[in-house]
């Protein structure tokens, strides 16, 4: 019975991870298409967006092998996704896709943040560093996408809360960890807070405080 | 007799490596000059273009020392090249240079790709990852050059096959490796396929399939 | 008595390090504000500018933990600085700030360069690589700041000597190290040469030699 629940939980976690990775890859695909990149550029930008945040985290924490080396099927999956999308998607589907990926993107942001905090705490990082590693995992894929596409990163510019949602969720995860809460409680709380804040922000049009010029 | 051939082969490999490094550095010099960078910028962009791909590969594979630390004379060479070019080259030589470096650039692309695949396979990477490491070695010097010069990377945008040639050559190298072919056969085949495809693409004006908008 | 002088020297070094870090962070803040980034962007760009150079050096030398993990209070400090500046600084203070940070920026450049050369020599790097690591430590925070803000890096473009001052200072440090001079002599000489050249360059409007087009 308990084993059943655990395996259900594990399956659910895997589904969120796949959905999040696909959402990140798709956001890279859309940006690459908007910039009129060629087929190579589209694939690279999609991979960078999907795997960039976790790779930067692993580089900074000096963890090897990278997660996309251990699970090389993720790489194959994103490349297959690129080919399918390039064959079948048309311009007028862009807006639809952008709306459609908001949910998996928010859930993925929460999950990747929790993963980043978890791995950093495992390496005995100070708590602030661990939370920032979580944010990096969730956010820097998009930052690298924008840098490669020669844009100021959306995450730093559009006044929509994104990184701050991950920041809040990261503190929740780290705090519950300090209180010795079971791992799945911290994970669920982190995803719920991060994704909840993000979706609320999109729904209610919350804006980040502006610089008082 | 056999030793003679081996030492000839080794000399040839070294010549291609030097020519490729110089071609990469020159492409960085030209872009930096076009962007009107100062002397510091010209040197940095040339070094980034020449060494960026291999450095990123070594970072991702966690290899130390870097090849430009082991062979620090390469660094001295590129810096001397920068000074000479800045002293003696004029604007009207730019187009000549661009044509002139197509051959060494294509050969270098092939050789660097083979090196990348080889090193990654040595570290037990999955074959797809190894091939992508080869492509990274050959292509990311130019990508970093364009990012530093604030351009969308040419390799992702100009619809000319470049990374895909390296990708094809990389699979050839890895495939021949799996079939236990001798190292030099795999190397020659990889360089021939990569450089051959690249030069054919330039000659026949091949274009990458475009996104069907 | 000698212990007194040593502890004074150590305090002075710490003060220069804090002033340099603050100056780097402020230059990131100003650029982020000019680009109208949101609060998240401002904090990230300030941190990247303050810690980017040293982090890149540590990545290349494969040193862990990063200095901002060992001294996590630096991270807290820069984030507090960002909040304070966002609350209290107005546009008209930008020019004042830019003038005001020239001195601590130049001193920080010297100190960070010396630190980079020192750490690289400790890892048995060749002397040219060690000097370049020193330059990287001092200069690449600003380069990353400009890349993230989607500008061609100022250090490569404005014809004002900046990296060359660090380059000169780095050779001084490495040279004195080879001559077995005491560490503090090399440190003081490096900071004096780097900061002195930089401030002279600003004062006398020195320009880098231009490309002869």
UniProtKB/TrEMBL annotation, chains A, B, C:
Oxidoreductase as UniProt keyword: no
PANTHER family: INNER MEMBRANE PROTEIN, UPF0126 INNER MEMBRANE PROTEIN YADS-RELATED
Transmembrane segment boundaries: 12-30, 37-56, 68-89, 101-121, 127-148, 160-178, 184-203
Species the sequence originates in: Polaromonas hydrogenivorans
Topology class, membrane: Multi-pass membrane protein
One CC-aspect GO term: plasma membrane
InterPro entries documented for this protein: Gly_transporter (IPR005115)
Source organism phylogeny: Bacteria, Pseudomonadati, Pseudomonadota, Betaproteobacteria, Burkholderiales
Domain Glycine transporter: residue ranges: 15-89, 103-175
Cellular compartments annotated: Cell membrane
Key words of the record: Cell membrane, Membrane, Transmembrane, Transmembrane helix
Similarity comment text for this entry: Belongs to the UPF0126 family.
Protein name as it appears in the record: Trimeric intracellular cation channel family protein
């Amino acid at each position: 019975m308990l084993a059943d629940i655990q395996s259900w939980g594990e399956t659910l976690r895997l589904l969120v991870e796949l959905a999040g990775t696909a959402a990140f890859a798709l956001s890279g695909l859309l940006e690459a298409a908007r910039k009129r990149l060629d087929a190579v550029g589209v694939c690279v930008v999609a991979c960078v967006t999907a795997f960039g945040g976790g790779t930067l985290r692993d580089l900074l924490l000096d963890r090897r092998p990278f997660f996309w080396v251990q699970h090389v099927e993720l790489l194959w999956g994103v490349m297959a996704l690129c080919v399918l999308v390039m064959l079948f998607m048309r311009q007028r589907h862009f807006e639809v896709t952008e709306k459609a990926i908001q949910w998996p993107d928010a859930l993925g942001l929460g999950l990747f943040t929790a993963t980043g905090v978890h791995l950093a705490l495992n390496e005995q990082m100070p708590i602030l560093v661990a939370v920032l590693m979580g944010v990096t995992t969730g956010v820097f894929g998009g930052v690298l996408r924008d840098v490669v596409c020669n844009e100021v990163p959306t995450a730093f510019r559009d006044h929509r809360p994104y990184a701050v949602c991950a920041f809040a969720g990261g503190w929740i995860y780290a705090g519950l960890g300090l209180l010795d809460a079971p791992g799945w409680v911290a994970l669920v709380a982190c995803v719920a807070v991060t994704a909840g804040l993000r979706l609320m922000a999109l729904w209610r049009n919350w804006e980040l405080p502006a610089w008082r010029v």
